[in-house]
Amino acid sequence: MSQGVDEQPTRLVVGISGATGIAYGVRALEFARKAGVQTHLVVTPAGQQTRQYETELSAKDLAAMADVVYRPSDIGAAIASGSFRTAGMLVAPCSIRTLSAIAYSNGDNLLTRAADVTLKERRRLVLLVRETPLTLGHLRAMTAVTEMGGIVMPPVPAFYLRPGSIDELVDHTVARALDLLGIDVPDMPRWGE
C-alpha cells in the first residue's frame, strides 16, 4: 500500500493466539515491516505459551518485531476503537477459542475486541484458523465470521510452487493473507509472473 506525503502510514493489527503455527504471525510482522506497514501487535497468554514451545524467541524478541505492542487485558487500547484507522487485522494463528469469541462478538480480551471492531467498521479481518479435523461447531463459527464479512483462511500449504522448505510454505501463506488485506509483499513470487 502506498501513502501520500501527508498521510499516516498504513496500519495493520496483528493478533497471535494460542494455536500452533506462531511462525505465521512472526512472518506477517516481518513482511509488513518490509512492505512499510506499521504493525500493532496483541498476543494472548496462550499465544505466548505457544511462542515458548515453537520458537527460540523471547516475549521481548517478539515484541521488538512490531511497531506497537498491547497487553491482551488493555481493552481501552487504540486498536479497540473504530476511530483508530487500520488496513484491517490478521490473526495468525487463530485458535478455535479465538475464532469462536470473534464469531459470537465476545470481546473478552483486546485481540477479540479488536477483531470485533474490525468487523463492525467493515474492515478486512483475516483469520488463519489452525485446527483439524473440524467439528460442526467449528464450521458454524467459521460461517458466522464469514457472514459478518471476515475471511477464514486456514493455512493450507500450496505444493504447486514446489517448496523446498517449511519457510517457503509459511512465506507463501502469509503473503496470500497480506494480499487479502491489500498489503503487497515485495519480491514474492506469484503464479504466472
Automatic annotation (TrEMBL):
Keyword line: Flavoprotein, FMN, Prenyltransferase, Transferase
Annotated residues for binding of dimethylallyl phosphate: 160, 176
UniProt binding sites for FMN: 18-20, 44, 95-98, 130
Keyword field contains Electron transport: no
SUPFAM superfamilies: Homo-oligomeric flavin-containing Cys decarboxylases, HFCD
Molecular-function GO term, any one: flavin prenyltransferase activity
Pfam family, one: Flavoprotein
Signal peptide: none
Classification via Gene3D superfamilies: Flavin prenyltransferase-like
Flavoprotein domain segment(s): 11-179
Catalytic activity from the UniProt record: dimethylallyl phosphate + FMNH2 = prenylated FMNH2 + phosphate
EC number: 2.5.1.129
Keyword match Flavoprotein: yes
InterPro entries: Flavin_trans-like (IPR036551), Flavoprotein (IPR003382), UbiX-like (IPR004507)
Function per UniProt: Flavin prenyltransferase that catalyzes the synthesis of the prenylated FMN cofactor (prenyl-FMN) for 4-hydroxy-3-polyprenylbenzoic acid decarboxylase UbiD. The prenyltransferase is metal-independent and links a dimethylallyl moiety from dimethylallyl monophosphate (DMAP) to the flavin N5 and C6 atoms of FMN.
Stated family: Belongs to the UbiX/PAD1 family.
Name this protein carries in UniProt: Flavin prenyltransferase UbiX
Originating organism: Nocardia cerradoensis
